[in-house]
Automatic annotation (TrEMBL):
Cofactor binding note from Swiss-Prot or TrEMBL: Binds a second Mg(2+) ion via substrate during catalysis.
Catalysed reactions listed for this entry: (2R)-2-phosphoglycerate = phosphoenolpyruvate + H2O
Entry similarity comment: Belongs to the enolase family.
Domain Enolase N-terminal intervals: 1-130
HAMAP family given in the database record: Enolase
InterPro entries: Enolase, Enolase-like_C_sf, Enolase-like_N, Enolase_C, Enolase_N
UniProt GO molecular function: phosphopyruvate hydratase activity
Protein's UniProt name: Enolase
EC number in record: 4.2.1.11
Main function: Catalyzes the reversible conversion of 2-phosphoglycerate (2-PG) into phosphoenolpyruvate (PEP). It is essential for the degradation of carbohydrates via glycolysis.
Gene: eno
UniProt subcellular location: Cytoplasm; Secreted; Cell surface
Keyword annotations of the record: Cytoplasm, Glycolysis, Lyase, Magnesium, Metal-binding, Secreted
Location of the active site: 203, 335
Length: 417
């Protein structure tokens, strides 16, 4: 690499984030952006933020300085042949657990840019390079569009964070995106008529003034039908991210509207929702350290739904393996910035696959227009992605990239694995 440089950009919530630019020997420049979460797990890798008053304490001056000095000194003037080499060197340079010195935001942006550099050197599209280095069978994923927002992503009283629709029965990537857009616009009409406004949450989904999950689910079913499609777990399905950390009371108790539920009560509530609505997936149904709750949920509902761990696993291969051994879930969410590097992200997917878990690739609530996760999900062939609503530039950038890949390679299969 000839040069390493970083710059401050704004994410989709108006906060600074890191962009790393790598200048290659042939004059090409590749980039990588770091996303940021609002609902973050306690076990995630650590972002480096300045504190103080600028940008509400979220500025990244220190991170930019470390990239332009320490990381630039590490990467430039050397030949790199594998992403594992780059990522191991970054981890050694940092020397802490969770990238506390350099910052996970600095490291993930550098690792993404380095992946693009290596794909370019190999003469391959990024998704194909990922497929080759992992030995995966690439495929186009089912998009899970977050069309109703609550929790930490919205200003309403809805405890559940994400209500998604998934066109499982679509015939192609283009068909899936069209279905998502059709339902989103039908939902817009319903929300406008019933609530008089179209306020949005962080991920582009509508955030009407509702509190009960059933209200949101009724809206989704009505919108799917209004758009001309059939709600169903094998048709246009619904997926939930309750993000139970946000309504956990501790000690296995959870706030649900004006009530308090114990673990068994919460699992029974999810069972009632599954009995009533076409729900195929529930993510973070329990708080991140409520292993007993996850275990009970998996035992009771794991044969009916995809039970996904996000804050529970934070894309950490060892935590995923432990969760599999303890039978906590049957799927893991994958977010590169939770763990820090592309190599570790690929390791998390490989670990999940090796123990029979599904993987869903995911964006963050604070996003950029970087489309790395679109290539990641195709290259690893996990078969499912969530990237917010089919609206807002930082969200549709991923869906547009998926459509582009599908158009260029119509032989790639579409759908869940």
């Amino acid at each position: 690499m000839d040069a390493v440089h970083s710059t401050r950009i704004l994410d989709s919530r108006g906060y600074p984030t890191v962009r790393v630019l790598l200048e290659l020997d042939d004059g090409r420049t590749v980039t990588g952006d770091a996303p940021a979460g609002a609902s973050t797990g306690a076990h995630e890798a650590i972002e480096l933020r300045d504190g103080g008053t600028a940008f509400g304490g979220r500025d990244i001056t220190q991170a930019l300085h470390l990239i332009n000095t320490d990381i630039a000194g590490l990467l430039t003037g050397r030949s790199w042949s594998a992403i594992g080499q780059v990522d191991a060197a970054l981890a050694e340079l940092d020397g802490t657990t969770g990238y506390r010195r350099l910052g996970a935001n600095s490291v993930v942006a550098t690792s993404i840019a380095a992946s693009r550099a290596l794909a370019h050197a190999a003469g391959l599209p990024l998704w194909q390079w990922i497929a080759e280095i992992t030995g995966s069978t690439p495929r186009m994923p089912v998009p899970h569009f977050n069309v109703l927002n609550g929790g930490a992503h919205a200003a309403n009283k809805l405890d559940f964070q994400e209500f998604m629709i998934a066109p499982v029965n679509a015939s192609s990537m283009a068909d899936a995106v069209r279905i998502g857009a059709d339902v989103y616009h039908a939902l817009a009409g319903l929300v406008r008529d019933r609530f008089g406004s179209l306020g949005l949450g962080d991920e582009g989904g509508f955030a009407p003034s509702i509190a009960a999950p059933e209200e949101a689910l009724d809206l989704l079913v009505t919108a799917i039908r209004a758009a001309g499609y059939e709600p169903g777990v094998d048709q246009v399905a619904i997926a939930l991210d309750p993000a139970a950390n946000e309504f956990s009371l501790g000690d296995g108790s959870y706030r649900m509207l004006d009530d308090s539920l114990d673990r068994d009560g919460l699992v029974d509530y999810y069972r009632q929702l599954i009995d009533t609505y076409p729900i195929r997936s529930i993510e973070d149904g329990c708080a991140e350290d409520d292993y007993d709750g996850f275990r009970r949920m998996q035992a009771a509902l794991g044969d009916r739904i995809q039970n996904v761990g996000d804050d529970l696993y934070v894309t950490d291969p060892q935590r995923i393996r432990d969760g599999g051994e303890q039978r906590l879930t049957n799927a893991a969410l994958i977010k590169p910035n939770q763990i820090g590097t592309v190599s570790q992200t690929l390791g998390a997917i490989a670990t999940a696959t090796s123990i029979g878990m599904a993987s869903m690739v995911s964006h963050r609530s604070g996003e950029t227009t970087d489309t790395f996760i679109a290539d990641l999900v195709v290259g690893t062939g996990t078969g499912q992605i969530k990237s917010g609503a089919p609206a807002r530039g930082e969200r549709v950038a991923k869906y547009n990239r998926l459509t582009e890949i599908a158009e260029q390679h119509p032989d790639l299969p579409y759908g869940l694995i």
